[in-house]
Each structure stands twice: as structure tokens, then as C-alpha cells.
């Protein structure tokens, strides 16, 4: 550990020396960019723009290499900037992204970021063509953006600034090198090469210059790529999939109730009652998946408790475990949307852990924190009211997938994910809503957010064409922890009719429904609404997901021929 630290210090002072020498070269005018701009003759716009892109590649490659060497994926400047962007994104845009791109929202963000970086790099190159120092300064400014983004990540340490710093140094150095190489061999006042004259010696010089430019450009690109690849490979050390494969989950002390055979409505195109892990929706703010080694993992329970608890993964597996079927839903889910999934979770009851810690009077919130610094708040009362709130380690018979919170996450039936389902959880603080706020509640989302009653038509699909006659209409409804007591469906403005409800193992999962429709030719609108266990029927008025979940009735238009 000490040796490591010494190496880091040496590395840091090395970087500082480099920067100092670099700056000194300006003063002594030996620097390639110290040529006075007016006498500077640089090549055409295209090459200058390419210089910018190559220099940016060098910056990113170097930064990636350092992020990899440090084993800190999140400190990679583009990822840090992306993560900062996610945090700064207004709620409406986030909703839009989740709605528009769904599980691919992060890919969309990274593509957008890549485009932005490319445009900025082109700009830096063009700027450097006439004003080398400005180009240099712009490159440094981008480095500063990277540093700021990395340092403002919630779980960041000072070391997270290093990749962006090294990247900025590498980027400016590469830019200087490239621009010097791009300088035409002829001076501006000398004769220009005459391309129509094959024997003109100026042409040879120009060709030589071009060859050198291409060589240097290729060298920079190669080094950048090598750095990037090496960085990514180094980050594999952090990968926890091997550790995950070694986890042996104990049998539950309290097994799940059997799922009744009829829970799955057997119609082509129908949603699976149990969502396979690979199909389970994913919503989180993590641009890079936290890699949490179970051997190093601990959960701390502290705050307004009599006896703070610290639990290792081994100790967690030794607790009595319960297995439960619970449907998770996201507050960003729209009417008819699919940001919900049903899994069989294995975990220890959260209430028992909290009682062991001894919750003090006056507390009303659990503020949970994940390994990547994300915070979620959960109403304490919901966790203690007897429902199956779990500190989960297993999902559908395997350890939690890394994308779903390995090694441990919270699952609380009946509450939207953003107030209950903390993935990669490492810390539970028992506190008061008046004292602490979490990521989403700070952004105006509701503190108390029970899942709203929801129903959806899964078959037929929107805009489907079906044959006149008997048509199966089926779907999924949920009102976790209250249960779905009725589902009604309607054709056009006809009467509401009862659908047949499939059996369910309990109140905490979604429920499938099915009906037979005597379809007549023409275009028809099918509509659905559910009634929960308290007797409340889904309202017709449409409200958006912000701040506590969407309402409205799902409908599909089908053509009957
Ligand atoms: N650490 C962490 N946990 C999180 C989130 C997050 O962004 N970070 N998102 C929450 C939200 S909004 C939802 S809907 C659920 C989604 O869980 P899933 O991705 O396993 O489906 O996780 C919750 N837990
Ligand atoms: Mo969510």
C-alpha cells in the first residue's frame, strides 16, 4: 500500500515536472507553438481539423490508459463528463431519454458525447491553425472540464483527476507536435511549389512534408489507440464476474410460495410472468457498472440507531434468507410502458437487520447509498410494516447480475424503484426526511411513492391487423402490495367488461389477464383499466411520470379485416 502510494507520488511529481518543462519551453521560445502567429504558415483547414481530432484522440487514449492503470473506470474523462451530464440533466430531458431510448439511454448519451467531442476537437484544430496558443488553451480547458467532472462524481477522490490531467498534457503535446509537422516546408514569402511542374524541387519537399505529416499523424493515432485499448484491458482487473461466478447462494430459510401454473397466460406474444434476468429492464445513473468485489463489500447501518451494524457478504449469506416473487417498477414508466419486471428475489429481511441496529424514535427515512455514490431514500414505515422488504443477493436463482446490483441491493415491494431498490448498496443511514435528501428527491420527485395501479394490453400489439372473429386480448396489470382485484376492458366506447384474472402467488407481483373479443371488421380502440385491492380503479386522467408516477389508461388501436 505504501509502495503504491510512493509510486503515485512519484508519478504525480513527474507529471508536474513535465508540465513545468512544457510551460518553460514557451518562455524560451523553443516551443513549436511559440512561433508568432502572423508569420506562422500552417497547412490547410482540413489537416488542421484532423490535427485537432488526432490530438483529442491522444488525450483520450492517454487518459484511458491512466484510468485503467489506476483501476478507476469512472475517472475516464468522457465517462466522467457523461456521468456529470446525467446528474445535470433536467428531469424532463431524463424522462425523455428513458422514454425515447429506454435501456439504450446510455448508449444514446455516449454517442452524443462522442459527436460533441469530435466537433470540439475539429474546432480546436481549426483554432490552432491560426492561433496555436489558443488551440493549446482550448485543449487545456477541455482537460479542466474532465477534471471538474471527475472530481464532482459523488464517490470521487483526488486521484480521479489524474486521467484528465494526463490526458490534457498528452493532448496539448500531440497538438503541438502535429501542428509543427503540418507547417509547410516553404516559408510564406518563398516561392510556392508549382504542381504543374513535376521537376520543381519544391514539390519533393512538399511530398516529404506530407509524408512526415502522415507518419506523425499515424503515430499519434496508433499511440492513442494503444493507450485506449491498454486502459480498457487494465480495467478488466476490476471486473467482478469471476467473483460473482464463485458465489454459492444458500437455500432460503423461507421459500417462496409456488407460482400457480395458470399465472402465465399462454398466448403468443404475451409477457413472461417471470422476467428472465437478461430481459429485466435496467434503469440507473451508472454510466459504468460499479464493480463491487463481494470479498471487500460491507454494509453499514448507522444514523439514528442504538447499535450501528456492519455486515460482510459472508455474514449476509449466513442470515436467514427469504425467497419472494416481487415485481419492480420504475417511476419513469409511461402508460403502456415496459419499465417493470418480475423476479424471484433471495434476500434477508431488511426489518430484522434494522431491529438488530435498534431504530430510534423520530426516524422516518432510510437513506441508502450505493458503491458509486448514488443515494436513494425510502420511507422507513414501509420497510417496517411487515412487507417483504429485502436486502437481496439473488435474482431468479443466481447471484444478482452486476447490472442489477451485485453483490447486494434493496427490494421493497409496492414502492417505485427510485425510493426502494438501491443497487450495489453499501450504506444505510437511518434518518429523517427533514434532515437528508437523496438524488431523486433533491430533484423534486416525491419522497413517498407507492406504485400506482397500472394495466397494459400486451396482445394484440398496437396497430396490429387481426382477423374478424374470436380474438384473444390479454395483458399485465400491477398494484404491488395492494394486489390487482379486477381488470376491465372496453372496445371503442362500448361497455366495460370484466377480464379473466390469472392466479398470482401473492400481492407483490403483477397479474396477467385475458379476454375473448368477437372482433368485427374495421378499426377499433381497445382500452383497459384495473382496480386494486383497496377497491380503487385506475383514473382516466393522464399525468406524466414526474413527480410520483404516471396515470392514464392504456389503449391500442387494431385493424380487423
Ligand atoms: N445504485 C443505484 N440503484 C438504483 C438506481 C440507480 O440509479 N442507482 N435506480 C433505481 C431505479 S430508478 C429503479 S427503477 C431500479 C431499477 O432496477 P433494475 O435496474 O434492476 O431494474 O433501481 C433503482 N436502484
Ligand atoms: Mo426508476
TrEMBL record:
Source organism, top-level taxon: Bacteria
Gene3D superfamilies referenced in this protein's UniProt entry, alphabetically: 2.60.40.650, Oxidoreductase, molybdopterin-binding domain
InterPro entries cross-referenced by the UniProt entry: Ig_E-set (IPR014756), OxRdtase_Mopterin-bd_dom (IPR000572), OxRdtase_Mopterin-bd_sf (IPR036374)
A Pfam family of this chain: Oxidored_molyb
Transmembrane segments: 47-70, 108-127, 134-155, 161-182, 213-235
Coiled-coil positions: none
Keywords, sorted A to Z: Membrane, Transmembrane, Transmembrane helix
Domain named Oxidoreductase molybdopterin-binding: residues: 288-436
Zinc in keyword set: no
UniProt keyword Ribosomal protein present: no
Name of the molecule in the record: Molybdopterin-dependent oxidoreductase
UniProt source species: Actinomadura graeca
Amino acid at each position: 500500500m505504501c509502495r503504491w502510494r510512493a509510486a503515485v507520488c512519484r508519478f504525480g511529481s513527474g507529471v508536474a515536472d513535465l508540465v513545468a518543462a512544457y510551460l518553460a519551453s514557451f518562455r524560451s521560445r523553443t516551443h513549436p507553438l511559440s512561433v508568432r502567429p502572423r508569420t506562422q504558415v500552417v497547412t490547410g483547414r482540413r489537416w488542421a481539423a484532423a490535427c485537432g481530432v488526432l490530438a483529442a484522440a491522444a488525450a483520450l487514449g492517454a487518459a484511458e490508459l491512466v484510468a485503467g492503470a489506476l483501476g478507476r473506470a469512472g475517472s475516464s474523462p468522457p465517462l466522467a463528463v457523461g456521468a456529470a451530464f446525467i446528474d445535470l440533466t433536467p428531469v424532463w430531458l431524463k424522462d425523455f431519454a428513458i422514454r425515447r431510448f429506454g435501456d439504450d439511454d446510455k448508449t444514446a448519451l455516449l454517442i452524443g458525447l462522442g459527436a460533441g467531442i469530435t466537433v470540439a476537437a475539429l474546432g480546436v484544430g481549426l483554432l490552432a491553425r491560426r492561433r496555436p496558443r489558443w488551440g493549446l488553451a482550448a485543449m487545456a480547458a477541455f482537460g479542466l472540464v474532465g477534471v471538474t467532472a471527475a472530481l464532482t462524481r459523488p464517490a470521487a477522490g483526488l486521484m480521479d483527476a489524474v486521467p484528465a490531467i494526463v490526458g490534457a498534457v498528452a493532448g496539448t503535446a500531440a497538438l503541438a507536435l502535429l501542428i509543427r509537422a503540418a507547417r509547410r516546408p516553404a516559408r510564406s514569402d518563398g516561392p510556392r511549389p508549382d504542381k504543374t511542374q513535376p521537376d520543381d524541387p519544391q514539390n519533393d519537399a512538399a511530398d516529404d512534408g506530407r509524408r512526415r505529416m502522415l507518419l506523425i499523424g499515424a503515430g499519434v493515432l496508433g499511440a492513442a489507440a494503444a493507450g485506449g485499448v491498454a486502459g480498457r484491458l487494465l480495467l478488466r482487473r476490476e471486473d467482478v464476474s469471476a467473483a460473482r461466478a464463485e458465489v454459492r447462494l444458500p437455500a432460503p430459510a423461507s421459500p417462496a410460495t409456488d407460482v400457480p401454473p395458470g399465472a402465465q397466460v399462454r398466448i403468443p406474444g404475451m409477457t413472461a410472468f417471470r422476467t428472465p434476468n437478461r430481459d429485466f429492464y435496467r434503469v440507473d445513473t451508472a454510466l459504468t457498472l460499479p464493480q463491487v468485489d463481494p470479498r471487500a463489500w460491507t454494509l453499514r447501518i448507522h444514523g439514528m440507531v442504538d447499535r450501528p451494524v456492519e455486515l460482510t457478504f459472508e455474514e449476509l449469506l449466513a442470515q436467514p434468507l427469504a425467497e419472494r416473487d416481487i415485481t419492480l417498477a420504475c417511476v419513469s414508466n409511461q402508460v403502456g410502458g415496459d419499465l417493470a419486471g418480475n423476479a424471484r428475489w433471495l434476500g434477508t429481511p431488511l426489518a430484522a437487520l434494522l431491529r438488530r441496529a435498534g431504530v430510534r424514535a423520530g426516524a422516518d427515512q432510510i437513506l441508502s447509498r450505493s458503491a458509486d455514490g448514488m443515494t436513494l431514500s425510502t420511507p422507513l414505515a414501509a420497510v417496517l410494516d411487515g412487507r417483504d422488504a429485502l436486502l437481496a443477493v439473488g435474482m431468479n436463482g443466481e447471484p444478482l447480475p452486476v447490472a442489477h446490483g451485485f453483490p447486494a441491493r434493496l427490494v421493497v415491494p409496492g414502492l417505485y424503484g427510485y425510493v426502494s431498490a438501491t443497487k450495489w448498496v453499501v450504506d444505510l443511514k437511518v434518518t429523517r426526511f427533514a434532515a437528508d435528501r437523496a438524488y431523486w428527491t433533491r430533484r423534486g420527485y416525491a419522497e413517498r411513492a407507492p406504485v400506482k395501479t397500472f394495466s397494459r394490453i400486451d396482445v394484440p400489439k398496437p396497430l396490429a391487423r387481426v382477423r374478424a372473429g374470436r380474438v384473444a386480448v390479454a395483458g399485465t396489470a400491477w398494484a404491488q402490495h395492494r394486489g390487482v382485484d379486477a381488470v376491465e376492458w372496453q372496445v371503442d366506447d362500448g361497455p366495460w367488461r370484466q377480464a379473466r384474472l390469472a392466479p398470482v402467488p401473492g400481492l407483490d407481483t403483477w397479474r396477467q389477464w385475458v379476454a375473448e373479443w368477437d372482433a368485427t371488421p374495421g378499426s377499433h380502440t381497445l382500452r383497459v383499466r384495473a382496480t386494486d385491492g383497496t377497491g380503487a380503479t385506475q383514473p382516466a386522467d393522464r399525468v406524466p411520470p414526474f413527480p410520483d408516477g404516471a396515470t392514464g389508461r392504456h389503449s391500442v388501436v387494431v385493424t380487423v379485416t
